[in-house]
Amino acid sequence: MIMGYLKLANYKVLSFDKISSTQTYAHDMIAQGNARDHTAITALAQFAGHGRYRRPWVSHHGNLYVSFIFDSEHRDPRLAYVVAVAIVDTLLSFGISSEIKWPNDILIDGKKVAGVLIEYSGRFVIVGIGINVKSNPTVSEYETTKLENYANVELTDLFQMLTKNLDKWMVCDFELVRDAWMTAATGLNKMAKYRGKNVELIGINDNGALIVRENGEYHLVHGDEISM
User: 3-state DSSP call for residue 133?
Assistant: First the structure.
């Protein structure tokens, strides 16, 4: 059931108590011709939340689940870095320091606190963001944490600050985004696996490709070819 409809700065916001997935709802809006730029779909809980590769995203009450719809004439790999920096900036406004695990997982003390799912549909891009605020799931692949362990953060305040920072960083020159991402990134100058080989993580270039070094040679990495 829809709980509310409101205007927030430049955003049209649809709020739900519980739905299958904010990301799915955004896709449905686009398919039905009801989407417009700067729409946000939020839910207090999801019963079919998912991340990349349709991996389940446990979505209990008390956390932030939101999918933003933005106009997008073309796919831009740099958007992943913009969103990650906006989240880090948002958490810092509440006194919480965080790191970015390439390309846009957000960690606190090495534990995942937020994830991002970016999907394109027609002339739009959907930016799905999940942030653990009051609870964090137990996941076998990695450790998780929640904001409540570090500060008292209200969902409404978190959401409003997130929209402000998204708007700020999405219009910034990418050089500033890249510098902010590099400052917050974890794993740089350390070893990772690239196509089964050991490589050193160097940084990202102007086009959003990850730069790695192997035996003195540099390579540009896209997608999920890297494992840390």
Answer: coil
Provide the strand spans (E) within 72-133.
99-101, 105-108, 111-121, 124-131
What does the DSSP assignment read for 144-185? Answer: B--GGGT----HHHHHHHHHHHHHHHHTS-HHHHHHHHHHHE
- 128 & 28 share domain: yes
Are residues 13 and 42 in contact, defined by beta-carbon separation less than 8 angstroms?
yes
30 by DSSP, 3-state: which? helix
Using one digit for the tens of pLDDT, what is the confidence trace for 67-117? 999 999 899 999 999 999 999 999 999 999 999 998 789 999 999 999 999
Q: Supply the CATH number for residue 195's domain.
A: 2.30.30
Residues 75, 149 within the same domain: yes
Q: Are residues 151 and 208 in the same domain?
A: no
Q: How far apart are CA 27 and CA 31, in angstroms?
A: 6
Whether the pTM exceeds 0.70: the reply is: yes
Q: Name the domain count of the chain.
A: 2
